[in-house]
Backbone:
């Protein structure tokens, strides 16, 4: 078994397992604890968490050839739709102990799991029970951020993300939007839904960097990466 840093992305590692298969991983900020049953591996005195692309759309995007990962060490990140913390915990690993992740989640059950299983063991995560459609309701709890990651099951995903960016995102900051086509419009082809959401982001002042189809890891999903215009 061996591990090496990803050539492109800070904080991401390539792991070759005993059977010769390759995975990606993040360095575990909370050694000895996993979040969603992911495998923990010890190499050269450090612990890493295998990052499952079938459980995390961000991992899927990386494995589908994403060219830019705008979440780095020491960043502050607003995570919309943190759920029980699967991907958010890996974001926590990426930003490290000097970064911070504000986790917005509307479901009482999910926020409870997020707190009990993840945030109480990670000093760089803040669980916030709130509706992402109304950013001003949690504006007092969130500072300006370097990036926003959005993974919400709402009909107006791009609009909700844009509204949050106007309040929280630094000029020149980045957004990542995991589009769930069937949550937006089940009557339209996913490609049409993606185009519509991209058009909204452009009108709201974003430069689109790339669009990645997440199949086979996620059906009818795409990841959009974009930068807030300076």
Residues:
């Amino acid at each position: 078994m061996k591990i090496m840093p990803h050539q492109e992305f800070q904080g991401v590692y390539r792991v070759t397992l005993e059977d010769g298969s390759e995975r990606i991983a993040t360095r575990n900020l909370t050694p000895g604890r996993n979040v969603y049953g992911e495998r923990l591996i010890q190499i050269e005195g450090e612990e890493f968490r295998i990052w499952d692309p079938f459980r995390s759309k961000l991992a899927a995007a990386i494995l589908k050839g994403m060219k830019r990962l705008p979440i780095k060490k020491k960043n502050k990140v607003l995570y919309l739709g943190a759920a029980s913390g699967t991907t958010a915990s890996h974001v926590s690993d990426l930003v490290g102990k000097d970064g911070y992740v504000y986790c917005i989640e509307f479901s009482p059950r999910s926020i409870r799991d997020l707190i009990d299983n993840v945030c109480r063991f990670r000093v760089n995560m803040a669980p916030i029970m709130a509706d992402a459609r109304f950013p001003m309701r949690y504006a007092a709890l969130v500072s300006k951020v370097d990036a926003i990651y959005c993974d919400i099951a709402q009909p107006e995903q791009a609009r909700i993300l844009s509204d949050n960016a106007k309040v929280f995102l630094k000029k020149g900051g980045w957004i990542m939007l995991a589009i769930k086509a069937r949550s937006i419009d089940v009557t339209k082809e996913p490609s049409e839904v993606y185009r519509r959401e991209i058009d909204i982001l452009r009108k709201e002042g974003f430069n689109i960097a790339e669009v990645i189809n997440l199949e086979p890891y996620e059906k009818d999903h795409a990841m959009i990466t974009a930068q807030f215009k300076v």
Residues 74 and 99 are 4 Å apart (CA to CA).
